[in-house]
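User:
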Amino acid sequence: MLNNDHESFAAAQARAAAAVSCESVVLPSGLTVLCRTMPGYSSVHAIYATGFGSVHRAFRLDGKQVTLPAGTAHFLEHKMCETPKGDSFTFYAKTGASANAFTSYDRTCYLFSATQKIDENLDILLGMVGKPWFTKATIAKEQGIIGQEIKMYDDSPDWRLLNALFRCLYADHPLRDDIAGTVESIAELTPQMLYSCTRGFYAPSNMVLSVAGKITLAQAVDACKRNGLYRARAPHEVEWDIPAQTGPLPHKEAFFTMPVTKPCFGVAYREEPLAEGDLKRELLLDMLGDLVVGGLTKLYRRLYDEALVNPEFSGDFIAVRGACTVAFTGESDTPRQVVDLLQEEIERMRREGVDPEVFMLVKNQMYGELLGDVEAVDDAAEEAAAACLKGRTLADEIAALAALTVEDANALLQTALREENRAYVQIDPAEK
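Assistant: Predicted structure:
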């Protein structure tokens, strides 16, 4: 039965890979343009993204060393939306587009959705990111605005929990620092630092423009031509790397209080960083949370039936250069008991193997989620851009997922989720 399931899955993934494929071209400037024309849709979603995020804190640009304070990529995201003629969001408001931007650990993205004036909106998007403008006065103004945003993050138990776990796992990897940085760190920023970031990481060869919906590749390329992103450019040489953390964990445990209704807790495992292009191991690590304690497992049912966790208890996976982590987080009145049961289940699975039926269900679930993500115009553009920045396509991800076997998962478990690489963080309710 399982062999038949695998064969039918492989046949389906071949059709799915064709369904998620998109047109692409690399311009003479080095910019990659992706387009998924979606007949029957009336809207367009565009995302302009760079492989520059919060972990990019030190690099060499044309032979010169540049060191950045925590929060630089996020700060730059805010500043890119400001032009000498005004805030770009006011321009989008006039066209009726919905626009946004965000920064993650390894990328920064600028995007809009619109049903009209597509060319005009593309000009706003490509124009604001392509023409950086920084002064000491505008930087000082933004430092105050972002300072308020940082305080909001400080009030989020989920964010504080994850950040505390990273600080337990890593002694000096930038993953341990908040994406937005601190009030003190962003105060160190200068126009020269920000211009170095844009020269190095906002170069067309490090970026991707991904569009989906009622649009053609030719229309997207024409927008690039209008905004000076077509012609060849002299390349900048950027070198950067982050050494992998070795040795014992800096901290095994951390505790603090916040105004929460019940204890929040997290347990995270430091794994070997992913080798470049190792999509197979990346997908397997991503599966581990659902294989151990996903909604299809006996452990989850026990924890939920005995009211040991809330329904949001789950596993997560984070990987950037030099760091790789599998974390389990949730709320519980008896968090230590939950962690003990979790570790017992991991050890049992290591000895006895993953349930083949659960593996196939989780694999099908991931497959369905991947396909579901590209049914919407916005997700189609954003998922294609994310894959491109990792040097692959959505079809590559589908093919790699289809090839995974329960034996692969069992092999990974022999080295992953080891107790000696585990950190624990607990947030207790603050006394009123």
